[in-house]
Amino acid sequence: MSYLQAIILAVIEGLTEFLPVSSTGHMILAQSLMNIQSDEFIKTFEIVIQLGAILAVLVLYIKRFIVGITIYLKLMVAFLPTGIAGLLAYKFIKQYLFNPFIVSFSLIAGGVILILLDMWSEHRSAKYKDIEDITYGGALKIGVIQC
Question: At 66, is the secondary structure helix, strand, or coil?
């Protein structure tokens, strides 16, 4: 991987981390377009730049993260369905879902779904006004839908 390719991947990660799209999906597509073969160094590089983007979010929103413990407990409840599904389907995901065609299709389908949901919810009132209003059951439902 060249320095230019590393910079391009870092910029893609930095820009897409803040969007409701898969930054990992964009990284897979960019690597495919630039013909970057995945090896241990590339995998480590991906982890480091994703960690950097996550740390940037933490620094930017640090005041929002200093809240009560219940929000973090609800976050863990919301994560459970995805975490369990990921553990159970790990081999399948690695073998079949990291394909650039599948990633492209998923990003497009996810974008269309987000647009349709936005149009649908435009005329509905929000069920939750604030993150503290989400119940544990609501957090679990969110996790199942995200999964």
Answer: coil
Q: Which amino acid is at 36?
A: I
Q: Which helix (H) or strand (E) holds 115?
A: helix 100-121
The pTM of the full predicted model, rounded to 2 decimals, is 0.69
Alpha-carbon span 124 to 85, nearest angstrom:
31
Could you tell me the CA-to-CA distances from 105 to 26, 33, 97, 131, 134 in Å, in that order?
A: 12, 15, 11, 31, 32
- CB-CB contact of 32 with 8 (8 Å): no
The sign of the dihedral angle between the CA atoms of 68, 73, 74, 76 is: positive
Domain boundaries of the chain, sorted by first residue = 1-66, 68-147
Length of the chain counted residue by residue: 147
Q: In this predicted model, what pLDDT tens digit does every residue of 63-106 receive, in sequence order?
A: 777 777 888 889 899 999 999 999 999 999 888 888 899 999 99
